[in-house]
Amino acid sequence: MSKKIKNEKALLKEALRIVLDDAVRRGVVEFEPTDSHDLKIEYAYRLLVHDGAITPLPNNQISMPNIRHRLAMWVRHKLPPDHELLK
Q1: CATH fold of 38-87, please?
Q2: I need a surface site. Which of 24, 25, 38, 63 has the fewest CB within 10 A?
Q3: Cβ contact 75:14 at 8 Å
């Protein structure tokens, strides 16, 4: 597993907010109140891979911890340098 990054949980939350808000706005997904957090994380990962925004993990490395880490890394590069989560 990759090295844990500072604020990884908060970065994951921000990544989900950005990706899922965009997906709903684009009309590509509708979530139900019963949909699990992990389902949303996996959906966000697959959408970013589909859009070419991130490189897919190798098949033997696809796991929830690795997907969470990949989303956190992605959003780190999307946020402005002075963003609170990067301090």
Answers
A1: Four Helix Bundle (Hemerythrin (Met), subunit A) (1.20.120)
A2: 25
A3: yes
Contact by Cβ (8 Å): 85, 10: yes
Three-state DSSP class for 60? helix
**What are the residue boundaries of the structural domains of the chain, listed by start?**
38-87
Determine how many CB atoms are found less than 10 A away from the CB of residue 31. Answer: 13
Record the pTM. 0.90
Burial of 22 (0-12, 13-18, 19+ CB in 10 A): middle
In a structure prediction context, what are the per-residue pLDDT tens digits for the chain, which is 87 residues long? 567 788 999 999 999 999 999 999 999 988 888 999 999 999 999 999 999 999 999 999 999 999 999 999 999 999 999 999 988
Q: What is the identity of the amino acid at 38?
A: D
